[in-house]
Amino acid sequence: MIVELNVNGQKRAVDVESRMSLLDCLREKLLLTGAHAGCEHGVCGACTVLIDGAAVRSCLMFAVQADGHAITTIEGLTPGPGELSPLQDAFCETHGMQCGYCTPAMILAAHALLAKNASPTREEIVDAISANICRCTGYAQIVEAIALAAERMRGQNLPAGTP
Amino acid sequence: MKPAPFEYSRPKSLDEACALLRREEGARLIAGGQTLVPFMAMRLARPTRLVDIARIPGLAYIRDLGESIEIGATTRQCIAESDALIRAKLPLLAKALPYVGHGATRARGTIGGSLANADPAAEIALVAVTLGAALIWRDADKTQQTAAGDFFLGPMLTAMPTTGCLTAARFPVWPEQRVGVGFHEINARQSDFAFVSAAAQIAVGPDGAIVRAAFGLGAVAAMPLRLASVEQALIGAKQPEVREALRRALAGIEPMSDLHASADYRRRVAVTLGLRAIADAYRAAAGRA
């Protein structure tokens, strides 16, 4: 069946079997391989995407359920080709990744958090990524990265030289 | 693709959804799908048709009926979690919702979906049983109502026929001035299934004595349990001391036992968490003048 998905601001019509998960559809039909397949039953969080701004498991949703929603993948987060979002930058700077498998999902989960809470506490950051597993266990730098990005994004609209 | 093949329908109305369920024995409802989809991925569930009710108009709402709050079945858990009315009038549900799965599943999972799924460890089902909610469901063209205490029959088993569609849950609102709640659960990892969960709601009178109490345990038995004997032991008390009553109530229950938590462990932890939930509820009620 044909579904029309709104992915990263673009309308894409795809022909899918009803049993195809949104994750498989993104990876195999739209070649957006930033959403990773981990456990494929909702535990590991590697497949996280944003649906209408909220972090959601793309393996726990069939593509046929997703039409009409705004879907954002890690590919849609960069401001332009070759550029990084403040969160992506912060992950590089604090080395908030090791093997990188969980990273797109961690960044999207953090993105959803910072969109509704500009000054999260450490507890809130930990809670926001608590459903995302990093098997390298590099959580300390991931938390650091999100806190750094939050700090920078809060300062973005201040005039230069503001303490 | 891990699930077995199935047909997908998105009916425009409840009538149409109920008709689809009656027409095909293997048809099942999906709304948020946060339990059903992994079950399908593991082929523990193999519906021949999914009937998607998530977009049927008029099934997602939170309505103040005065003596109760009615929550439409397809109301997403994240919406209920941040709802001011629920926070003010159904503090026990508000307290329990953050324990339901995790943020990413609450963003899609629905209140009705969790109730209809009837997992013994489900927090929403525990709150419904503890508060004595009424569950409203539709089968063909008949609308019926079942008390939450009679709705859950066992793990993933309810009094509602497979052709039924849960449409709403009506949670009673306590009119007492001083009401407090407590909720505790234990699991292997944050956001994982509870081994034991305990919910308490207590109202105290002007003299600080307990005038009304509701207490329930989840994940201990095959369905959420409301322990009336513990509630009775609380009435009139100024210092809730119900360890013995709780022990006696649990002696009459055969708890579930699995790889992660034995029956003995569940019984022991149920006493500890139950006392904590009651202590929290009492403190909150007595402290709020």
- CATH homologous superfamily caption of the largest domain in chain A: Beta-grasp domain
Q: What sort of overall outline of chain B do the alpha carbons produce when their principal axes are compared?
A: globular
- The CATH architecture term of the largest domain in chain A is Roll
User: Mean pLDDT of chain A, nearest integer?
Assistant: 94
Q: How are the strands of the biggest sheet of chain A laid out side by side?
A: 2-1-5-3-4
> For the residues shown, what is the average pLDDT of chain B?
96
Strand order of the largest sheet of chain B: 4-5-10-6-7
Distance between the termini of chain B: 57 Å
Number of domains of chain B: 2
Taken together, the total number of domains of chain A comes to: 2
Number of helices of chain A: 5
Oligomer: heterodimer
Concise account of the structure shown:
With 163 residues, chain A is an alpha+beta fold.
Would you write up a description of this structure?
The complex is a heterodimer of chains A (163) and B (289). Chain A is built from 5 helices and 5 strands, in the order ββαβββαααα. Chain A is of the alpha+beta class and 163 residues long. In chain A, a hairpin with a 2-residue loop joins strand 3 (48-51) and strand 4 (54-57). The longest helix of chain A has 17 residues, at 139-155. The radius of gyration of chain A is 16 Å and the shape is globular. The longest helix of chain B has 25 residues, at 263-287. Chain B has helices at residues 14-23, 36-41, 77-81, 84-89, 91-96, 103-106, 111-117, 123-131, 148-151, 228-234, 243-251, 263-287; strands at residues 7-9, 27-30, 49-52, 62-64, 68-72, 134-139, 142-147, 152-154, 157-158, 164-172, 178-186, 196-204, 210-218, 225-226. In chain B, helix 11 (243-251) packs antiparallel against helix 12. Chain B is globular. Chain B starts with 6 loop residues before the first strand and ends with a helix. Chain B is an alpha+beta fold. Chain B folds into 2 domains: 62-172, Uridine Diphospho-n-acetylenolpyruvylglucosamine Reductase, domain 3 (2-Layer Sandwich); 178-287, CO dehydrogenase flavoprotein, C-terminal domain (Enolase-like, domain 1, 2-Layer Sandwich). Chain B has 12 helices and 14 strands. The interface between A and B is medium-sized, with 28 and 29 residues.
